Structure formats: structure tokens, C-alpha cells
UniProtKB/TrEMBL annotation:
<feature type="region of interest" description="Thiamine-phosphate synthase">
    <location>
        <begin position="120"/>
        <end position="351"/>
    </location>
</feature>
<dbReference type="InterPro" id="IPR022998">
    <property type="entry name" value="ThiamineP_synth_TenI"/>
</dbReference>
<dbReference type="InterPro" id="IPR013785">
    <property type="entry name" value="Aldolase_TIM"/>
</dbReference>
<feature type="domain" description="Thiamine phosphate synthase/TenI">
    <location>
        <begin position="141"/>
        <end position="317"/>
    </location>
</feature>
<dbReference type="InterPro" id="IPR036206">
    <property type="entry name" value="ThiamineP_synth_sf"/>
</dbReference>
<keyword id="KW-0479">Metal-binding</keyword>
<dbReference type="GO" id="GO:0009229">
    <property type="term" value="P:thiamine diphosphate biosynthetic process"/>
</dbReference>
<feature type="domain" description="ThiD2">
    <location>
        <begin position="7"/>
        <end position="125"/>
    </location>
</feature>
<dbReference type="GO" id="GO:0004789">
    <property type="term" value="F:thiamine-phosphate diphosphorylase activity"/>
</dbReference>
<feature type="binding site">
    <location>
        <begin position="167"/>
        <end position="171"/>
    </location>
    <ligand>
        <name>4-amino-2-methyl-5-(diphosphooxymethyl)pyrimidine</name>
    </ligand>
</feature>
<feature type="binding site">
    <location>
        <position position="200"/>
    </location>
    <ligand>
        <name>Mg(2+)</name>
    </ligand>
</feature>
<dbReference type="InterPro" id="IPR041397">
    <property type="entry name" value="ThiD2"/>
</dbReference>
<comment type="function">
    <text>Condenses 4-methyl-5-(beta-hydroxyethyl)thiazole monophosphate (THZ-P) and 2-methyl-4-amino-5-hydroxymethyl pyrimidine pyrophosphate (HMP-PP) to form thiamine monophosphate (TMP).</text>
</comment>
<dbReference type="Pfam" id="PF02581">
    <property type="entry name" value="TMP-TENI"/>
</dbReference>
<dbReference type="GO" id="GO:0005737">
    <property type="term" value="C:cytoplasm"/>
</dbReference>
<dbReference type="GO" id="GO:0000287">
    <property type="term" value="F:magnesium ion binding"/>
</dbReference>
<feature type="binding site">
    <location>
        <position position="267"/>
    </location>
    <ligand>
        <name>4-amino-2-methyl-5-(diphosphooxymethyl)pyrimidine</name>
    </ligand>
</feature>
Amino acid sequence: MQSALYRILDANLDRAREGLRVIEEWCRFGLNDVALTERCKYWRQELAHWHQAELRAARNTPDDPGTDLTHPNEATRGSIEQVLQVNFCRVEEALRVLEEYGKVYRADMASAVKQMRYQVYTLESHLMTVHRRQVLDSAALYLVTSPSENLFSTVEAALKGGLGLVQYRDKEADDATRFQNAQKLRELCRDYGALFIVNDRVDLALAVDADGVHLGQDDMPFAWARQMLGQHKLIGRSTHSPEQLKAAIAEGADYVGVGPVYETPTKAGRPAAGLEYVKYAAEHCSIPWYAIGGIDTQNIHEVLGAGAQRVSVVRAIMQAEQPTFVTQFFIAQLEQKRRFQPQSTPDPWEA
């Protein structure tokens, strides 16, 4: 029994320290953050303090059945985000094992590891908050989905074209279907390093661990959504006038939609806000904003000429015969616009 206990503790001390080192390297070289780097290093050293010789002596790698266990997903990582998420899970799981079995070995170690686990959770939330805002800052094209028999293939084709931001919007499906679709889209976005937003439904966003939610003017109060989602998730807000834009900024929106620029069946009956509202946003909006509403490959230059540097589209991609090509076209036009009007630092998560 003691040998088995020691082997469990030895394996999980190694696992936690290895995972922390992966996270530490990103804090050091990806974020250039001295404080976070030092924090990870301190945790590794604290774990090393508990990794006594008696635990190492119990190691029996040749007879360990776990060394041959593997999973196909372990062979590849789709993005830096995925690397970090996998290693945060590894660290947190290992710390939980150390906490439970440590109660048998040394109560003081179990207590110390428990506190470390909570601190690692906090670091994970912080890094994901940084990540989401950096990707948001760099994502010039935003796809809002519409119901389609080819929903997943169309979205994946756009992601292959470089799309960085997807919103799932479906006013027709039942909740079970919405949940399944949102879950699948979340997985696709994660595979390609893109952000995934759910339209209207905070509960659905939480259920599938989306990156945030988008609220219309008639949806739940912003403060309620923030309370439920927390500070580390994104909340976008639709705006149709300068007054609504000012209100969205004041309430703490992470980004806003500006439109509809042109009349669109997506918002049937809503008059177009026009290019004048785009010009107003270009001069007054202090947070990321997306011109939206009837934008396509034919009128994109008018929208960019009015001052937009980010656009959101629906039909232009969802109904395209070649979504990848159309996505690349939009991104090329937006990048050309940004090249002459740089506004923020590049996303280090793509380094």
C-alpha cells in the first residue's frame, strides 16, 4: 500500500511540474510577463520541495501500465490556446490527486497543494481573458451564422480561410438542437484558434463554454449577463445609433456591432443606420466595433471607405459557394485597410 501511494504521489508531482513548465514558457516567451513567469516557477519549486527521495525511490517505470496508454488527440495541437488548456487540465488534475492522496501521506502537503490548485484556476482564467481580448483585437472579420443544412462545413471552410470570430445565431431551432450545434461549433473554433460567441443565450454560452455572448438591445440587461458570465468572458452588444453606442461602452461591452449598414433580411423591418453611423463609430468608438448589416463583396469598399476596420457578415459567407475563398477575400481587404491604419499589437498567441 505504501509503495502504491508513493508511486501515485511521485507520478503526479512530475505531471504537475511538467505542465507548469509548459505554461511558464508561454508566460515567459509568449507574453513576456515577468510576474506570471515567476509565479509558475515558484509553484514548480514548491512542488519540488515535496518531491522527496522516498517518493522518487518508489518509481517503477518499466512496470507502469500507464506508460503505454495514449489517445489520438495527444498527437497534435491545433493552437497555442489548446496547448495551454491541455496543460492547465493536466496540472489541475494532478494537483487534485496530490491533495487527496496527500491526506494519507502528509496533511500539510495536501493543504498546500489545495491552495495551489485554486491559484492555478485563477491563472487559467486570467490567461484566457488575455487570450480572448488579444484574438478579439486581431479579428477583423466576424461571421454570424444563419440556419443551414451545411452549417458545420460552411463554418469550417471559413475558419480554414482565416476567420477568427464566429457567432452562433439560430432563432428557429429547439434548445436540444441549439445545444448540439453550439457544442460542435465550439469544438471547431477551438481547433482553429478562433473565438466562439453565442447569440442572446447566456445559459447556452455557459453550457458549451463559449468565449462569450452577444446581446441585442432587447435582450437581458447587460449587468445580469456579466454577473453570470464573469469578467473573463466576452460580451458584445448590437447598436443602431450613437446613443446606443455610448451606452454600450459605458456599461462595459467588450465590442459592439454598428448597423445595420444596409437593410438586410436578417433584421427584417429594421431601417438601415447607413454609412453615416459607420463614420460616427470610426470617430468616436473606443472599443472594438464591427460594421454589420448587408455587407458583401460588392459593397465592402464603401464600408471601409466610411472608416470601418472590422466587419461582420452573415449571408456573404453562409450562402457562398466557396466560403473559404470569400473569407480570404474579406480578410485581404480588411488587412489592406489596417495596414494603413494600424491600431493595436499583434496577437502573440499565433506566434
